[in-house]
Amino acid sequence: MQLSDLTHQLFAAKKIKELSFADLERILGRDEVWIAAVFYQQAAMSEDEAKLLVDALGLESIYIDQLTAYPIKGLGPVVPTDPFVYRFYEIMQVYGLPLKSVVQEKFGDGIMSAIDFTMDIEKEVDPKGDRVKLTMSGKFLPYKKW
Questions:
Q1: 44-47 CB contacts, 8 Å cutoff, 24+ apart
Q2: Which of 90, 101, 122, 131 is catalytic?
Q3: Smallest Cα–Cα separation from 98: which of 35, 36, 145, 49?
Q4: Per-residue confidence band for 72, with pLDDT thresholds at 50, 70 and 90
Q5: Is 90 a catalytic residue?
């Protein structure tokens, strides 16, 4: 997968400024995973949010237009056809790389185990429509160096 120039520039500026996504969450008042999604152009910011991010990263204002542009969601071809399974695939298309970035920022270079793993599903009653709450917990597995 090829990342955009904007994505590379945002990550480079974030590294230079030594900011975490949690730092950016405090600055922007938005969730760190959502901010990571913006980095991958999977979400768009308001102009005010984009100005805050550009200032925090020490970038020029020319990036504001790109940060506020409508995103093209998804990272690849759509495979599943079952609507329920497709939604999980859609979640990974949109938030997979942002989730990976945030997890690796917190734990290091590695993965979450799908073998040493638990998931809890809860029903949340909501007057606007019941909600599905998933809680996933997997052991962190760092990549080995040899």
A1: 44/68, 44/69, 44/70, 44/71
A2: 90
A3: 36
A4: confident
A5: yes
**pLDDT at 2 > cutoff 80:** no
For the chain, what is the mean pLDDT? 92
Task: Please tell me which residue in 4, 46, 113, 137 is annotated as part of the active site.
Answer: 113
What percent of the chain is modeled with pLDDT above 90?
73
Which amino acid makes up residue 92? M
Confidence check: pLDDT of 141 > 90: yes
- CA distance linking residue 118 with residue 55, whole number of Å: 40
Active site residue 46: no
Q: Using a CB cutoff of 8 Å and minimum separation of 24, what contacts does 70-78 make?
A: 70/44, 71/41, 71/42, 71/43, 71/44, 72/41, 73/42, 75/1, 76/1
The backbone region for 29, taken as left when phi is positive above 0, alpha when psi lies in -120 to 50, beta otherwise, is left
Q: Is 101 a catalytic residue?
A: no
| The one catalytic residue among 20, 46, 61, 87 | 87
SS3 state of residue 124: strand
pLDDT digits (tens, 9 = 90+) for 41-69: 989 999 999 999 999 999 999 999 999 99
